[in-house]
TrEMBL record:
Protein source organism: Apatococcus lobatus
Boundaries of every BTB domain copy: 540-607
Pathway info: Protein modification; protein ubiquitination
Entries under PROSITE patterns matching the protein: ARM_REPEAT, BTB
SMART domains hit by this protein: ARM (SM00185), BTB (SM00225)
Region (Disordered): 1-25
Gene3D superfamilies attached to this UniProt entry: Leucine-rich Repeat Variant, Potassium Channel Kv1.1, Chain A
Pfam families: Arm, BTB, HEAT_EZ
Domain of life, per lineage: Eukaryota
Protein name: BTB domain-containing protein
Amino acid sequence: MSASSDTERKGHKRKLADTLGPSALQREDLSAESVGCQAQRLTFALEEALRQGPDQADRATLRRAAHSLAELSKNEELVDLVVECGAIGATVPLLSFFHRQAEDCSMEPSTSRCSGEEVEKEACFVLGLLAIKQEHQHRIADAGALPGLVNLLRQYAPLSPPSSVAASVIRRAADAITNLAHENGIIKSRVRSEGGIPPLVTLLESLDTKVARAAAGALRTLAFKNEENKNQIVECGALPTLIQMLRSDDVGLHYEAVGVIGNLVHSSQHIKRRVLDDGALQPVIGLLSSKCHESQREAALLLGQFATAEPDYKAKIVQRGAVPPLIVMLRAPDAALKEMAAFALGRLAQNQDNQAGIVQNGGLDPLIDLVESHAESLQHNAAFALYGLADNPDNIAGIIKAGGAQRLQNAELIAQASKDCVQKTVKRLEDKLQGKVLKQALYCMHSTDKMMQERTVTALARLAQAGDLQNIFIKRQGLEILMSLVIDHGADPDSQREAAGALLELVKKSRSVAPVDCVPVPQRPQVYLGEQYVNNPMLSDVTFLVEGRQFHAHRIALLASSDTFRAMFDGNYIEKDASSIPIPNIRYAVFRAMMLCIYTGVCEVKPDMAVEVLQAADQYMLEGLKRLCEQAIGNSLTTSSLEGMWELSEQFNAPALGQQCVVFALQNYETITAEKGSAMSPCQGVVAFANMLDRMSDALKDHITDQLAKHAAQDTTS
């Protein structure tokens, strides 16, 4: 080479070094034009050096150019622009640009072997950053990056103390493979075809934990949803080393190791079997107490998968101490931890002894809490676990005492699958609530612990079988306990709401099991004259004066209709022989409706006159018409008219209306307490509702008692 050309080359080096100084990027803005110019200068510098060959290229300058490209590529928004400027084509050749043979120790530091490794390290870093965007992954692979990266991995001796730069090269190469293969099944297979898996498995044994961690991270990505890769990783002997890594105190190391194993066993029963045979179970359980939340999460997920390997593994996992840390995880602030802990417990809860152990260790309350959360996955995993726990009769009393039945039914579930699961759990509770389980619950119902008593009696109202209702609520006074909760002025709103809901459920159940009552209709009159004789003077033998208007009637029909008319016409009253009888307290339209019912047995009670017709029906003892009126008034109840209609039922001896009033009150608990309370004093609503139900309590108890007695009588006769 001539002196002039050598001088020119050195001058170019100095100029490039000035351009690539450490503060160059800081001095310039990051506009697209500026970044494009920088990227073009950097790729040009790399291409120029590649043309010169490894002997002539200035390695320090190459390193700085590659480093500057990496700095630009760290900004994901600039990656596309960097790629457009040719960064891939300029960077990939650097992976194999230098040879690793011994070099002349007399060379300047800037041209030493270490500088070559620095260039390779920066090149790996650049490619890893560019590969973060999936659209560039295939371009990088097609440019020949994979053979170069794999060759770098092969050159490293894991059991030899490496230089820090050499270790960095390997870490960056493994990281680049990780990013290239991320969510890219084709490149995962190409890495295997290029022989990348065996050296990565070998690197797991590196004395440098950072290298081992990077290798594990790459294997974790390669194993995800790729059966061929998973099988090769196992056949290369990775499992023993990975299992040892699980015991490492290095958080990053055991996190990557448990991630690799998790991906290996996913949907691969034979690998799961080998992992367990190689002794992974205990170290995975140990990771449940790791300081790394991600390791805990992965370990819980893995245990959930192990639990499905063989039936006896569910018991083994629990026996080896997995349940206590999993329950601790249920209360963690991290939602992902709670989700995976619930997932694992749900799988473990498919064993009956495990079911009892999970409850005994305090897993019940946090699982119910998760069902009440607002996260779909948390709700579903917890609901599935509780479904398992409810399979053990020994857990039923505990679930009831924890308020589980009410909380499950009241939970606002997001997914339909979660709703179905909770519904099945409640059904399972209902089915188990018999025999000794029912006796346990009845014992709790009379506990001196008020909260336990409250939760038990409300649960029994929701869960008990029809045949047990009379025993629970009448003979054993469960109804009295429920009523006392509702009318307690000092009750908190939640307790009163639950008790009111339980009473309503009990009313529904008692009505469903009692013999069905027909829709109330008057009995067919003993003397049927027909509508044409209503207010018809033909054959009329008595006339009523209503609001100054005559109303023609027939004694034969009236005598057959009620005791009141019989007393009027057969007794010693003045009406007996009177041909015209004044009716001072009933409107003409109301009187006509009453007469229509007497003559035909049919009457449409209009809502606007139902109260007056009821009053008339009570006065003349027309029970059929009275029931029709009670039904009509009950159908038009509102929260504002409720108390007035209740008083009406008392005044006119209308028990059916009274029952409708009390059921309406229970159905509309929220509205009534809100209307009678205030934002400043919500307890006013509780007190007002308690007072209202106190007045109605006898009617409610009579109704429930009567319905359950009918059911018992029906059972006796059948």
